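WARN retry 2 of 3 for item q-0093 after timeout on previous attempt; input resubmitted unchanged.
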Amino acid sequence: MDARRPQVPFPLHRMYPRLVKGPPVNMIQTPYTIDSPSPQNIEIKSKRMAVSWRDDTLFYVPDRTGKQGVCILEPSMQPGQEYFEAEIVSTGRWGAIRIGLAPPDHSLEVHLGIEGNSIAFSVDDSTIYGEDLKTPLQCKACKPGDKIGVGIKFSENYMEGADEKCPVVFTLNGKEIHRQDVVIPYKGLCPAVSMASPSQMVRFKARCDWLSQEEEMVIDSCEDEWARLHDVTVHGQILAYAGRGKTIADVGLAQARKPLSPMNHYFELEIIDPGKNCYIAIGLAKKDYPKKRHPGWNYGSIAYHADDGKIFKGSGVGDSFGPRCHKGDIMGCGIMFPRDYCMDSDDAESDNEEVNVVKAWQEREPFNRLNQLDRIAQDNFAIDVYDLSEDEYEDYLSEEEEYEENVDRVQQGTKVQVFFTRNGTTIGRREVNLPPLGFYATIGMLSLDEKVRVDLRPLSG
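OK item q-0093 returned
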Protein backbone atom coordinates (compact mmCIF):
# COMPACT_ATOMS: atom_id res chain seq x y z
CA MET A 1 0.00 0.00 0.00
CA ASP A 2 1.42 3.36 -1.10
CA ALA A 3 2.07 5.77 1.75
CA ARG A 4 2.88 8.78 -0.43
CA ARG A 5 -0.76 9.67 -1.06
CA PRO A 6 -2.60 8.76 2.14
CA GLN A 7 -6.37 8.74 2.06
CA VAL A 8 -7.03 11.00 5.00
CA PRO A 9 -10.55 10.70 6.41
CA PHE A 10 -12.44 13.85 7.29
CA PRO A 11 -11.69 14.66 10.96
CA LEU A 12 -14.40 13.64 13.42
CA HIS A 13 -14.58 17.11 14.94
CA ARG A 14 -15.42 18.46 11.48
CA MET A 15 -17.87 15.71 10.69
CA TYR A 16 -19.76 16.22 13.95
CA PRO A 17 -19.14 19.85 14.97
CA ARG A 18 -22.31 20.02 17.07
CA LEU A 19 -22.06 16.78 19.04
CA VAL A 20 -20.79 18.53 22.16
CA LYS A 21 -23.22 21.48 21.98
CA GLY A 22 -26.22 19.38 21.05
CA PRO A 23 -27.29 16.79 18.48
CA PRO A 24 -28.19 17.75 14.92
CA VAL A 25 -31.91 17.41 14.30
CA ASN A 26 -31.46 14.63 11.76
CA MET A 27 -29.50 12.49 14.26
CA ILE A 28 -32.06 12.54 17.11
CA GLN A 29 -33.26 8.98 17.57
CA THR A 30 -36.72 7.84 18.52
CA PRO A 31 -37.20 4.87 20.89
CA TYR A 32 -37.22 1.36 19.52
CA THR A 33 -35.48 2.11 16.25
CA ILE A 34 -34.69 -1.03 14.28
CA ASP A 35 -31.80 -0.81 11.84
CA SER A 36 -28.79 -2.54 10.33
CA PRO A 37 -25.91 -0.87 12.18
CA SER A 38 -22.87 -1.77 10.12
CA PRO A 39 -21.91 -3.25 6.75
CA GLN A 40 -19.72 -5.70 8.71
CA ASN A 41 -22.65 -6.85 10.87
CA ILE A 42 -25.54 -6.80 8.41
CA GLU A 43 -27.35 -9.67 10.15
CA ILE A 44 -27.54 -7.79 13.43
CA LYS A 45 -30.55 -5.63 14.29
CA SER A 46 -30.64 -3.13 17.11
CA LYS A 47 -33.21 -1.66 19.43
CA ARG A 48 -31.95 1.68 20.62
CA MET A 49 -32.71 5.08 22.01
CA ALA A 50 -30.59 8.27 22.04
CA VAL A 51 -27.76 6.63 20.08
CA SER A 52 -26.81 6.68 16.40
CA TRP A 53 -24.76 4.34 14.20
CA ARG A 54 -22.00 5.48 11.85
CA ASP A 55 -20.35 2.48 10.14
CA ASP A 56 -19.45 0.27 13.13
CA THR A 57 -19.41 3.07 15.74
CA LEU A 58 -22.12 4.03 18.24
CA PHE A 59 -22.54 7.71 19.10
CA TYR A 60 -24.44 9.05 22.10
CA VAL A 61 -27.03 11.50 20.75
CA PRO A 62 -29.20 12.69 23.65
CA ASP A 63 -32.76 13.77 22.96
CA ARG A 64 -34.30 16.87 24.42
CA THR A 65 -34.95 15.12 27.74
CA GLY A 66 -31.23 14.29 28.17
CA LYS A 67 -31.88 10.61 28.88
CA GLN A 68 -29.17 8.00 28.66
CA GLY A 69 -28.61 6.17 25.40
CA VAL A 70 -29.22 2.42 25.31
CA CYS A 71 -28.60 0.03 22.44
CA ILE A 72 -29.50 -3.67 22.45
CA LEU A 73 -28.30 -5.74 19.51
CA GLU A 74 -30.12 -8.84 18.32
CA PRO A 75 -30.07 -11.78 17.93
CA SER A 76 -29.19 -13.07 21.38
CA MET A 77 -25.85 -14.75 21.96
CA GLN A 78 -25.64 -18.45 21.14
CA PRO A 79 -22.94 -21.15 21.09
CA GLY A 80 -20.66 -20.26 18.20
CA GLN A 81 -21.54 -16.57 18.58
CA GLU A 82 -20.83 -16.18 22.26
CA TYR A 83 -18.40 -13.24 22.40
CA PHE A 84 -18.23 -9.60 21.30
CA GLU A 85 -15.98 -6.60 21.88
CA ALA A 86 -16.60 -2.88 22.17
CA GLU A 87 -13.69 -0.46 21.77
CA ILE A 88 -13.86 2.86 23.59
CA VAL A 89 -13.33 5.58 21.00
CA SER A 90 -14.22 8.51 23.27
CA THR A 91 -15.34 8.66 26.91
CA GLY A 92 -16.94 12.06 26.39
CA ARG A 93 -17.14 14.52 29.27
CA TRP A 94 -17.27 11.66 31.77
CA GLY A 95 -16.99 7.90 31.44
CA ALA A 96 -20.61 6.87 31.92
CA ILE A 97 -20.37 3.90 29.55
CA ARG A 98 -21.59 0.42 30.39
CA ILE A 99 -20.94 -2.58 28.16
CA GLY A 100 -22.59 -5.92 28.79
CA LEU A 101 -25.60 -8.14 28.18
CA ALA A 102 -29.36 -7.61 28.38
CA PRO A 103 -32.48 -9.53 27.31
CA PRO A 104 -34.07 -8.31 24.05
CA ASP A 105 -37.05 -6.85 25.94
CA HIS A 106 -34.86 -4.85 28.35
CA SER A 107 -36.13 -1.32 29.01
CA LEU A 108 -34.47 1.50 27.10
CA GLU A 109 -35.22 3.88 29.94
CA VAL A 110 -32.49 2.68 32.33
CA HIS A 111 -28.75 1.99 32.33
CA LEU A 112 -27.55 -1.57 31.92
CA GLY A 113 -26.95 -3.51 35.12
CA ILE A 114 -29.85 -2.05 37.06
CA GLU A 115 -32.78 -4.33 36.31
CA GLY A 116 -34.15 -7.11 34.14
CA ASN A 117 -31.41 -9.74 34.11
CA SER A 118 -28.87 -7.33 32.60
CA ILE A 119 -25.20 -7.32 33.59
CA ALA A 120 -22.55 -4.84 32.51
CA PHE A 121 -19.05 -3.49 33.04
CA SER A 122 -18.93 0.21 33.91
CA VAL A 123 -16.04 2.04 32.26
CA ASP A 124 -15.97 5.00 34.64
CA ASP A 125 -15.45 3.05 37.88
CA SER A 126 -14.33 -0.44 36.65
CA THR A 127 -17.28 -2.11 38.38
CA ILE A 128 -19.55 -4.98 37.34
CA TYR A 129 -23.23 -4.06 37.78
CA GLY A 130 -26.20 -6.40 37.75
CA GLU A 131 -29.52 -6.83 39.46
CA ASP A 132 -28.57 -7.00 43.18
CA LEU A 133 -24.89 -7.04 42.10
CA LYS A 134 -22.10 -4.51 42.44
CA THR A 135 -18.54 -5.85 42.18
CA PRO A 136 -15.60 -3.39 41.97
CA LEU A 137 -12.68 -4.80 39.97
CA GLN A 138 -8.98 -4.27 40.53
CA CYS A 139 -8.09 -3.17 37.01
CA LYS A 140 -6.73 -0.03 35.43
CA ALA A 141 -8.97 2.89 34.54
CA CYS A 142 -10.30 2.53 31.00
CA LYS A 143 -9.35 5.03 28.31
CA PRO A 144 -9.91 5.49 24.57
CA GLY A 145 -8.47 2.54 22.68
CA ASP A 146 -9.28 -0.03 25.37
CA LYS A 147 -11.40 -2.97 24.25
CA ILE A 148 -14.05 -4.43 26.57
CA GLY A 149 -15.08 -7.98 25.70
CA VAL A 150 -18.11 -9.90 26.95
CA GLY A 151 -18.69 -13.61 26.44
CA ILE A 152 -20.91 -16.42 27.67
CA LYS A 153 -19.38 -19.81 28.41
CA PHE A 154 -22.24 -22.07 27.33
CA SER A 155 -22.31 -25.64 28.57
CA GLU A 156 -22.02 -28.49 26.05
CA ASN A 157 -25.69 -29.45 26.48
CA TYR A 158 -27.04 -25.89 26.54
CA MET A 159 -30.56 -25.54 25.17
CA GLU A 160 -32.09 -22.20 24.23
CA GLY A 161 -34.93 -21.17 26.53
CA ALA A 162 -33.92 -23.46 29.40
CA ASP A 163 -33.18 -20.67 31.94
CA GLU A 164 -29.75 -22.20 32.53
CA LYS A 165 -27.04 -20.57 34.64
CA CYS A 166 -23.83 -19.94 32.68
CA PRO A 167 -20.62 -18.03 33.42
CA VAL A 168 -20.43 -14.59 31.84
CA VAL A 169 -16.82 -13.52 31.20
CA PHE A 170 -15.56 -9.94 30.90
CA THR A 171 -12.21 -9.14 29.27
CA LEU A 172 -10.10 -5.99 29.02
CA ASN A 173 -7.84 -5.86 25.96
CA GLY A 174 -8.12 -9.62 25.58
CA LYS A 175 -7.36 -10.49 29.21
CA GLU A 176 -10.07 -11.91 31.49
CA ILE A 177 -10.91 -9.55 34.37
CA HIS A 178 -14.10 -11.08 35.82
CA ARG A 179 -16.35 -14.13 35.64
CA GLN A 180 -19.90 -14.16 36.99
CA ASP A 181 -22.55 -16.91 36.96
CA VAL A 182 -25.74 -15.55 35.40
CA VAL A 183 -29.10 -17.15 34.64
CA ILE A 184 -29.74 -16.95 30.90
CA PRO A 185 -33.44 -15.96 30.56
CA TYR A 186 -35.87 -17.62 28.18
CA LYS A 187 -35.27 -15.07 25.39
CA GLY A 188 -31.51 -15.10 25.86
CA LEU A 189 -29.05 -12.27 26.43
CA CYS A 190 -28.01 -9.80 23.74
CA PRO A 191 -24.92 -7.58 23.41
CA ALA A 192 -25.78 -4.17 24.84
CA VAL A 193 -24.23 -0.75 25.42
CA SER A 194 -25.48 2.23 27.41
CA MET A 195 -24.05 5.77 27.42
CA ALA A 196 -24.91 9.05 29.12
CA SER A 197 -22.28 11.65 28.30
CA PRO A 198 -21.95 14.00 25.30
CA SER A 199 -19.42 13.01 22.61
CA GLN A 200 -19.19 9.38 23.75
CA MET A 201 -18.33 6.89 21.00
CA VAL A 202 -17.98 3.12 21.10
CA ARG A 203 -16.80 0.95 18.21
CA PHE A 204 -18.63 -2.38 18.15
CA LYS A 205 -17.35 -5.66 16.77
CA ALA A 206 -19.79 -8.55 16.90
CA ARG A 207 -17.74 -11.34 15.38
CA CYS A 208 -14.60 -11.87 17.46
CA ASP A 209 -12.39 -14.84 18.15
CA TRP A 210 -12.36 -15.67 21.83
CA LEU A 211 -10.31 -18.11 23.83
CA SER A 212 -11.57 -18.98 27.29
CA GLN A 213 -9.16 -18.90 30.22
CA GLU A 214 -8.81 -22.68 30.10
CA GLU A 215 -8.02 -22.66 26.37
CA GLU A 216 -5.43 -19.90 26.83
CA MET A 217 -3.67 -22.05 29.43
CA VAL A 218 -3.46 -24.95 26.95
CA ILE A 219 -2.12 -22.90 24.03
CA ASP A 220 1.39 -21.51 24.16
CA SER A 221 0.83 -17.83 23.51
CA CYS A 222 4.32 -17.40 22.00
CA GLU A 223 4.28 -13.81 23.29
CA ASP A 224 7.84 -14.21 24.56
CA GLU A 225 8.99 -14.48 20.92
CA TRP A 226 7.84 -10.93 20.25
CA ALA A 227 9.54 -7.82 21.63
CA ARG A 228 6.87 -5.44 20.33
CA LEU A 229 3.17 -5.97 19.65
CA HIS A 230 1.39 -2.74 18.67
CA ASP A 231 -2.33 -3.16 17.82
CA VAL A 232 -1.66 -6.87 17.26
CA THR A 233 -2.86 -9.77 19.41
CA VAL A 234 -1.18 -13.17 19.56
CA HIS A 235 -2.66 -16.64 20.22
CA GLY A 236 -0.14 -19.37 19.61
CA GLN A 237 1.29 -18.74 16.15
CA ILE A 238 -1.69 -16.61 15.09
CA LEU A 239 -1.27 -12.85 14.90
CA ALA A 240 -4.46 -10.80 14.49
CA TYR A 241 -4.82 -7.12 13.68
CA ALA A 242 -6.48 -5.21 16.52
CA GLY A 243 -6.30 -1.62 15.30
CA ARG A 244 -8.90 0.74 13.86
CA GLY A 245 -7.94 0.27 10.22
CA LYS A 246 -9.05 3.78 9.30
CA THR A 247 -5.88 5.62 8.20
CA ILE A 248 -2.25 4.83 7.44
CA ALA A 249 -1.39 5.81 11.02
CA ASP A 250 -3.34 2.77 12.32
CA VAL A 251 -0.59 0.26 11.51
CA GLY A 252 -0.43 -2.89 13.60
CA LEU A 253 3.19 -3.92 14.09
CA ALA A 254 4.78 -7.11 15.43
CA GLN A 255 8.55 -7.30 15.83
CA ALA A 256 10.49 -10.37 16.95
CA ARG A 257 12.55 -10.31 20.12
CA LYS A 258 15.78 -11.54 18.51
CA PRO A 259 17.41 -10.43 15.25
CA LEU A 260 17.97 -12.78 12.35
CA SER A 261 21.34 -14.54 12.40
CA PRO A 262 23.26 -17.02 10.24
CA MET A 263 21.78 -19.81 12.41
CA ASN A 264 18.22 -18.46 12.07
CA HIS A 265 18.09 -16.41 8.89
CA TYR A 266 14.56 -16.98 7.53
CA PHE A 267 10.90 -16.76 8.65
CA GLU A 268 7.44 -17.16 7.09
CA LEU A 269 3.82 -16.14 7.49
CA GLU A 270 0.65 -17.72 6.10
CA ILE A 271 -2.32 -15.47 5.34
CA ILE A 272 -5.21 -16.95 7.32
CA ASP A 273 -7.63 -14.08 6.75
CA PRO A 274 -6.83 -11.22 4.32
CA GLY A 275 -9.34 -9.03 6.10
CA LYS A 276 -10.85 -6.06 4.33
CA ASN A 277 -7.88 -5.06 2.14
CA CYS A 278 -5.03 -7.53 2.80
CA TYR A 279 -2.68 -4.73 3.88
CA ILE A 280 -0.23 -7.34 5.20
CA ALA A 281 3.53 -6.84 4.99
CA ILE A 282 6.46 -9.11 5.82
CA GLY A 283 9.98 -7.84 6.17
CA LEU A 284 12.85 -6.69 8.32
CA ALA A 285 13.37 -3.56 10.41
CA LYS A 286 15.83 -2.04 12.84
CA LYS A 287 15.16 -2.50 16.53
CA ASP A 288 13.64 0.93 17.25
CA TYR A 289 11.51 1.10 14.10
CA PRO A 290 8.52 3.53 14.43
CA LYS A 291 5.45 1.65 15.58
CA LYS A 292 3.04 3.67 13.38
CA ARG A 293 4.75 2.86 10.08
CA HIS A 294 4.35 -0.20 7.91
CA PRO A 295 7.64 -2.12 7.52
CA GLY A 296 9.41 -0.81 4.44
CA TRP A 297 8.03 2.71 4.67
CA ASN A 298 10.81 4.17 6.88
CA TYR A 299 14.61 4.01 6.71
CA GLY A 300 16.11 0.94 8.35
CA SER A 301 13.48 -1.42 6.95
CA ILE A 302 12.54 -3.44 3.88
CA ALA A 303 9.31 -5.34 3.24
CA TYR A 304 7.17 -7.16 0.69
CA HIS A 305 3.50 -6.05 0.73
CA ALA A 306 0.73 -8.53 -0.02
CA ASP A 307 -1.93 -6.13 -1.32
CA ASP A 308 0.02 -4.83 -4.33
CA GLY A 309 3.04 -7.15 -4.61
CA LYS A 310 5.44 -4.22 -4.22
CA ILE A 311 8.68 -4.05 -2.29
CA PHE A 312 9.27 -1.06 -0.03
CA LYS A 313 12.82 -0.19 0.94
CA GLY A 314 12.85 2.68 3.44
CA SER A 315 10.41 4.77 1.43
CA GLY A 316 6.69 5.42 1.18
CA VAL A 317 6.84 4.56 -2.52
CA GLY A 318 7.11 0.91 -3.50
CA ASP A 319 8.61 -0.78 -6.55
CA SER A 320 7.01 -3.58 -8.56
CA PHE A 321 8.45 -6.82 -7.22
CA GLY A 322 6.24 -9.89 -7.15
CA PRO A 323 2.66 -11.15 -7.35
CA ARG A 324 -0.08 -10.08 -4.98
CA CYS A 325 -0.80 -12.48 -2.15
CA HIS A 326 -4.14 -13.83 -1.00
CA LYS A 327 -5.69 -16.13 1.59
CA GLY A 328 -3.62 -19.31 1.98
CA ASP A 329 -0.45 -17.87 0.46
CA ILE A 330 2.80 -18.26 2.40
CA MET A 331 5.17 -15.30 2.33
CA GLY A 332 8.78 -15.67 3.45
CA CYS A 333 11.70 -13.37 4.17
CA GLY A 334 15.35 -14.08 4.89
CA ILE A 335 18.91 -12.78 4.85
CA MET A 336 21.89 -14.18 2.94
CA PHE A 337 24.71 -13.41 5.37
CA PRO A 338 28.34 -13.15 4.15
CA ARG A 339 30.45 -16.20 4.98
CA ASP A 340 32.74 -14.19 7.24
CA TYR A 341 29.85 -12.59 9.17
CA CYS A 342 30.13 -13.09 12.95
CA MET A 343 27.57 -12.51 15.67
CA ASP A 344 28.28 -12.61 19.42
CA SER A 345 26.48 -15.61 20.90
CA ASP A 346 26.82 -14.53 24.50
CA ASP A 347 23.60 -12.61 25.20
CA ALA A 348 24.87 -10.90 28.35
CA GLU A 349 28.02 -9.57 26.70
CA SER A 350 26.16 -8.74 23.49
CA ASP A 351 23.69 -6.47 25.29
CA ASN A 352 26.52 -4.33 26.70
CA GLU A 353 28.29 -4.16 23.36
CA GLU A 354 25.08 -3.18 21.58
CA VAL A 355 24.57 -0.27 23.97
CA ASN A 356 28.08 0.99 23.26
CA VAL A 357 27.65 0.60 19.50
CA VAL A 358 24.36 2.51 19.46
CA LYS A 359 25.72 5.28 21.68
CA ALA A 360 28.74 5.80 19.46
CA TRP A 361 26.57 5.63 16.36
CA GLN A 362 24.10 8.24 17.61
CA GLU A 363 26.84 10.68 18.65
CA ARG A 364 28.07 10.91 15.06
CA GLU A 365 27.12 13.87 12.88
CA PRO A 366 24.70 14.42 11.29
CA PHE A 367 22.80 11.81 13.29
CA ASN A 368 21.77 14.11 16.17
CA ARG A 369 19.39 15.99 13.88
CA LEU A 370 18.26 12.80 12.20
CA ASN A 371 17.47 11.07 15.48
CA GLN A 372 15.27 14.02 16.43
CA LEU A 373 13.34 13.66 13.17
CA ASP A 374 12.87 9.96 13.85
CA ARG A 375 11.30 10.65 17.25
CA ILE A 376 8.90 13.09 15.60
CA ALA A 377 7.95 10.53 12.96
CA GLN A 378 7.48 7.82 15.58
CA ASP A 379 5.53 9.71 18.24
CA ASN A 380 3.50 12.20 16.22
CA PHE A 381 3.24 10.73 12.74
CA ALA A 382 -0.52 11.15 12.43
CA ILE A 383 -0.39 14.78 13.52
CA ASP A 384 2.70 15.70 11.50
CA VAL A 385 1.44 14.15 8.28
CA TYR A 386 -2.32 14.64 8.36
CA ASP A 387 -2.13 18.33 9.32
CA LEU A 388 0.24 19.17 6.45
CA SER A 389 -0.70 20.73 3.14
CA GLU A 390 0.28 18.91 -0.06
CA ASP A 391 3.42 21.04 -0.48
CA GLU A 392 4.36 20.59 3.18
CA TYR A 393 3.84 16.84 2.84
CA GLU A 394 6.20 16.77 -0.18
CA ASP A 395 8.79 18.64 1.92
CA TYR A 396 8.27 16.09 4.68
CA LEU A 397 8.98 13.24 2.28
CA SER A 398 12.06 15.00 0.90
CA GLU A 399 13.38 15.50 4.42
CA GLU A 400 12.69 11.84 5.21
CA GLU A 401 14.55 10.71 2.05
CA GLU A 402 17.50 12.93 3.00
CA TYR A 403 17.35 11.38 6.46
CA GLU A 404 17.58 7.89 4.93
CA GLU A 405 20.57 8.84 2.77
CA ASN A 406 22.42 10.36 5.72
CA VAL A 407 21.67 7.33 7.88
CA ASP A 408 23.15 5.09 5.19
CA ARG A 409 26.32 7.20 5.21
CA VAL A 410 26.52 7.13 9.00
CA GLN A 411 25.74 3.46 9.23
CA GLN A 412 28.32 2.00 6.85
CA GLY A 413 27.29 -1.42 8.10
CA THR A 414 27.66 -4.84 6.55
CA LYS A 415 25.86 -5.21 3.24
CA VAL A 416 23.59 -8.24 3.03
CA GLN A 417 21.18 -9.72 0.51
CA VAL A 418 17.54 -9.80 1.71
CA PHE A 419 15.32 -12.22 -0.23
CA PHE A 420 11.58 -12.87 -0.29
CA THR A 421 9.57 -15.98 -1.17
CA ARG A 422 5.98 -16.81 -2.04
CA ASN A 423 4.70 -20.36 -1.57
CA GLY A 424 8.25 -21.70 -1.45
CA THR A 425 9.51 -19.93 -4.58
CA THR A 426 12.04 -17.11 -4.35
CA ILE A 427 10.63 -13.90 -5.83
CA GLY A 428 13.73 -11.73 -5.71
CA ARG A 429 16.32 -10.07 -3.53
CA ARG A 430 17.68 -6.65 -2.60
CA GLU A 431 21.01 -5.49 -1.16
CA VAL A 432 20.73 -3.43 2.02
CA ASN A 433 22.91 -2.20 4.87
CA LEU A 434 22.57 -4.27 8.04
CA PRO A 435 21.79 -1.99 11.05
CA PRO A 436 24.29 -2.06 13.95
CA LEU A 437 21.94 -4.17 16.10
CA GLY A 438 20.81 -6.38 13.24
CA PHE A 439 17.53 -6.86 11.37
CA TYR A 440 14.45 -8.07 13.25
CA ALA A 441 11.60 -10.05 11.72
CA THR A 442 8.76 -7.54 11.41
CA ILE A 443 5.14 -7.96 10.31
CA GLY A 444 2.68 -5.17 9.59
CA MET A 445 -1.11 -5.18 9.19
CA LEU A 446 -3.53 -2.37 8.47
CA SER A 447 -7.08 -3.50 7.72
CA LEU A 448 -9.83 -5.04 9.80
CA ASP A 449 -9.93 -8.80 10.50
CA GLU A 450 -6.46 -9.57 9.10
CA LYS A 451 -4.87 -12.72 10.55
CA VAL A 452 -1.63 -14.52 9.81
CA ARG A 453 0.10 -17.63 11.10
CA VAL A 454 3.79 -16.96 11.74
CA ASP A 455 6.69 -19.40 11.93
CA LEU A 456 9.87 -17.66 13.02
CA ARG A 457 11.92 -20.85 12.58
CA PRO A 458 10.50 -22.80 9.63
CA LEU A 459 13.88 -24.37 8.78
CA SER A 460 14.59 -25.76 12.25
CA GLY A 461 13.98 -29.41 13.08
